[in-house]
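Run log, item B.
One chain of 581 residues. Sequence copied directly from the ordering sheet:
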Amino acid sequence: MGGQQLLWKQIARHLSSHESKMTKLASSAPVLLRRRERNRDEKDDSKYRQNFTFMAIGIASAAAAAPFALSDSRKTTKHEEIINHTAGKRVKNLPTYRLEDVKAHKTVEKGVWMIFGEGVYDVTEFVENHPGGKTVMLAAGGDVGPYWNTYSQHHTEQVYDMLEEYRIGNLHPEDVKKLNDTSRSVRDAYSNDPKRHPALLVRQQKPFNAETPPLIAVQNQITPQPFFFVRNHMPVPDIKAEDYRLHIGVDRKTSNQDKDDSESFLRSLTLDDLKEKFKPKTVEATIQCSGNRRDDFNKLKEVKGLKWSLTAISNGTWTGVLLRDVLLSLGLSEEEMRLKYSHVHFEGYDSSDDGTAYEASIPLHKALSPEADVLLAWALNDETLSRDHGYPIRVVVPGVVGARCVKWLKKITVSDEESRSHWQQKDYRMFHSSINWSNVDWSKSPSVQECPVQCAICIPSSDSSIKLDSDFEFKGYAYSGGGKGIVRVDISLDGGDTWHQTDLEDTDQKAPNEYGWRLWSFNASPEMLKKSLRGKSSELELVVKATDSSHNVMPKDAQDVWNIRGIMNNSWHRIKIKVQN
């Protein structure tokens, strides 16, 4: 990298004239080490940290004058304490760069530098391998702070530690002051977010992400809107009904029509247009974040993403108009549309400071299917959508992961290719457990769409206690994507040795459109609980598994479906509880 080569030359010149001083400094001057971790062996923790590459950049290590490699991190124990710099804080004895120096490095060819706080970082290697490399490039040659204030999930110790591995120097104090003055003049992007119910289990404040309390989730088939789980990627838009416009058309880049013909298919609809020009429909449907139950993956090996527990899922009744009807109003026949196009893109009004909007897509056959019930919805549970849930219009794709159910819908585009957005191409995709961040090829796996069969225990909570003086009712939910209903949920009170069939609550849903979840319950007598203990301890291991109408079953262990993005965990749900005599 150009910046490192220049730095080494500067250090070498300094060494040639001050060799004796360097010997005295070598034992005390701070050193910044760059680490690289590759090819983790999931079965042997001692191999997790093999194959690091260390780059000595500080003056004290300059005598080496080159990178050096160690095959085992245990050899670096004596250096570990000097890696613990706080991200963005000034580090003594590192080179100082001016803002102009950083601005000159904003391409992979010249090196990609960026600023965070008082630190200067060379992230060229990271950009080339990171799934969001194109987004990272927006901060190339500048300050990443404003972007991270929008994508505030980056403000974690894990990300800070990773960032410090790329530290090459400090920003000049005058330039730090200049950037801070600019930053203070920019308002908090989340200051206009709506108020939320205090009972929600918050997993992240900015952007706001929260789960339904498990106790509330299983009280009713329909989740009340204030308790519906919230998944936001960016600040919540504040859109007035009278100002709302939905733009619909075909992708001119891929259309076989000439420009004039393409223009004739474009439409712009108001909220009143949608309500008055199309027939309304109400559909019961569950929406589940693809990261639901990610926390179980983290117990095996940490993955990237929000630490969702078991209720990043909710069920409701949605009212709106069929996407199919709106698409056919463009002027193309269904036959012609199916012949020329394959996908439908959805873009939201939510966007970052740089204008990047949330976008996703679904297959055209799903959008046009009369049985798929894909909605452009304006109401949830007979109530106007709240801002957190997509007011004034959101997409609801029953049976499909929540990432495709775009909120605050701004634009619909019919295309012959899948959305090129980060969230479609390099985020919500699933790989086997041997794929890691150093060898992932996002083109090798399709973007996730339909949800797998799933279930969980909501009552009691993990590590809680129950008494043996009366019957105890266990409760939870079960769900499967694609309109497949749940035919059975089984529970074990002894870790999976013996099983009992639970009771499923009645539902009005009928095949092949069973898009809502099924709540289940199971009453266990004190005698049954005592028998499950088998005299071994005062602890029970509860396990549940579900079977859907296609007789798809859940995998036994989370390890079987572990993946680097931590999505689609539908392994048997297990919890341990204590029993009091």
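Observations after the first pass:
- The CA atoms of residues 468 and 529 lie 7 Å apart.
- The first helix runs from residue 2 to 17.
Flagged for discussion on Thursday.
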